[in-house]
Specification:
Layout (H helix, E strand, L loop, with lengths): L2 H22 L20 E3 L2 E3 L13 E3 L1 H9 L6 E5 L3 H6 L6 E2 L9 H5 L6 E5 L7 H11 L5 E4 L2 H8 L8
Parallel strand pairs: 3-7, 4-5, 4-6, 6-7
Antiparallel strand pairs: 1-2
Length: 176
């Protein structure tokens, strides 16, 4: 085989293999140009005929708590006063005393009757972010279910909990 034929065969084989590999990808790269960058959009939720666009407005009244991650919890924390967001620590009092999110109230689910007065001072239309230790901790979910059953409808549960928050942020209130 002469050199020209070998080159043509190698180029054709390369193109064939390249196209085959490209088509096997979930999101193939376009042939020309670049894909459009993802546009960041503000959360818009249509509710009762009105369009809500503030950072906490995506959490419209619901029958179940919303589950949020660290970035959402941080966003709510940064605008908590402006948007009437209340952080509630559902862990035991001793754990709360060792460290908690600054400004968070301690309402342990296991002692809910003891903290009923504190709970009643929270307006039922405000957004609540509940957290516990994180991972498989159920206290925040149990407290969320209790609060939903008693009139609060805008409740989020921060899944990462104190374990993730204390490891990933500098916003920590502790006695140390």
């Amino acid at each position: 085989m002469n050199l020209t034929r070998q080159l043509i065969l190698m180029i054709a084989l390369s193109v064939f293999l390249g196209l085959g590999a490209r088509n096997m990808q979930r999101n193939p790269v376009p042939f020309w140009g670049y894909p459009k960058p993802i546009e960041l959009i503000r959360t818009k939720v249509a509710f009762a005929g009105a369009e809500l666009v503030s950072s906490d407005s995506a959490f419209v009244p619901a029958d179940q708590p919303y589950e949020v991650d660290l970035s959402t919890a941080m966003g709510l924390y940064m605008k908590r006063k402006k948007n009437n967001v209340h952080f509630i620590d559902a862990r035991e009092t001793e754990l709360y005393a060792e460290g908690h999110i600054p400004g968070a109230r301690n309402i342990p689910f296991d002692q809910i009757s003891k903290y009923a007065d504190s709970l009643l001072t929270i307006p039922q239309n405000d957004l609540l972010l509940l957290y516990c230790e994180g991972g498989d901790c159920r206290s925040s979910h149990d407290l969320a279910e209790y609060m939903l059953a008693n009139g609060w409808k805008r409740i989020t549960v921060y899944l990462g909990g104190w374990a993730e928050w204390s490891a990933e942020t500098d916003f920590i209130d502790s006695k140390q």
